[in-house]
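Quick one from the shared queue. A colleague (R.T.) flagged O-acyltransferase WSD1-like N-terminal domain-containing protein as missing a structural entry in our internal table.

Convert sequence to structure tokens.
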Amino acid sequence: MKVREQAGKLAKWIAAIVYSILMITQIPAILSAIIFRSFVALLAKCFRPDLDGLLWSTTAALGMYLNTKPHNNCNIICAWFLRGELTPQRVRQLFMERFTSNERENLKYKKLRQSYTFFLGYGFWKRNTDFGISNHIREYDYREEMELPEPCNVENITEVLSELEGKEWRENQSPWELLIVNGVLDSKRGGTQTCLMFRCDHTLMDGYSIYGFIDTLFGNKTTFPGKTPGKTPGKTPGKMKVSIAEKLREFIMIPYATVSSLVPIVLGKKIYNGKLSNDVRCVFSPTIPVDRIKRIARFYNVSYKAGVYLCIQRTLAKAMIDAKIPIVENLSACSIEPISNGMGHPGGLVNEFYTVPTLLPTFIEPVSRHVRQIEKRLSEIKSWNVGLGSKYLTHAGACFPVFLRRFFFDICTRYGLSYTVSIFPCPTQPEYFDGFEVTKFLPVLGTYRFLGMIILTGGTNHEIVFSFCVNSMIFQSEETTRKLGDLIYDEINEVLKTIP
């Protein structure tokens, strides 16, 4: 095993040297792309006064396709269930008070009045002159396309979320909406509740931006767990504190880290083969106390993240067995890493994260060996240089016309990646929207083009939910796909049984 690891590291160093040479030779191409991009921006300023700046970095990577076609973009959906009745009229009133009447917040959230389009091969923000709040904050009105019975229950809402995930957006309208459903039956406490479904194109914002918007709308201040690393007076909270010497060493290591992150794409094995369909289903686990995952992490002396990935990997193995698919020894997963935590998020509507592919063992016995291997793999993608390498690739890619970025993205996602995982933390305190208690939270991160499965965690009241957004081609069995939520719930309990 040690000989194999040493040979693997040597191969990565050789590849890193080759990669560095290739990148040096590509400098003229990158500089030419930057010059052409600047020229396009100048032309847009002269001839397209309706455009309001280029899409950049991660936002440019998310906005490579027009969102006016179904299943053509990545949507985020957050469904909160409130104890009480909150009407669209009341929410619109709050929006007018908190955003329209407040010049500072109006500027901070100006993307709420923007969509995006393409001009000469590049994505641009586009101002919507006919913005109307009733087009965005309204009663659920997709009843003909995605029927909701009256009265409906939580199970009916979850079925609708699968349809909303791939729903296209209206042309010339900012891609976000807050849909309100009153009279949702509460099977646990009796009576009815309100469901708020916030849906947006991921190009507009990330998860922390959504919470920032909701906090501003309802006058809240949501806090998330964890200490803020590197927090010092006068410094931006949530940013990693790195010495100059460490930065220099890590900068030299960027080619090696970049090659390491590309290995899972090249050598990774997929769960499925063939072309993905447009049939996508969203499946949710029952609510799970956060302390259960923390207990697993504490006992095996690993990070909370490793505990989550352990349960995900073992669940996917059980799903492959259930679907009669051969278990792949190592699966290629794309991990979404926030640049800063909730306290260090810059605010407004931004996308502050990077993605790193990694190879993770699917199923190993005993559990202790499995979770430590996962922890080792995850620790390799946490370093400063891996993040910088990923951001460099994203920044450099945004300089090129969109057809070239689509081509590269197509190759990467078709070749080795099976799924993406985003671990979003659960707020540390109970949540209230306009005085109404949040009783349940269901998150959805939609599939994006050729990524067939997105796994997301989120929650409220110290309880998390695992959300699986799965293309039908992944397991090729709707029965297996529908079981995923229960499978991971059972797997967590099975892992807990290994703890004395």
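The chain has two domains: 51-218, 227-432+440-497.
The domain at 51-218 is CATH 3.30.559.10 (Chloramphenicol Acetyltransferase).
Added to the table.
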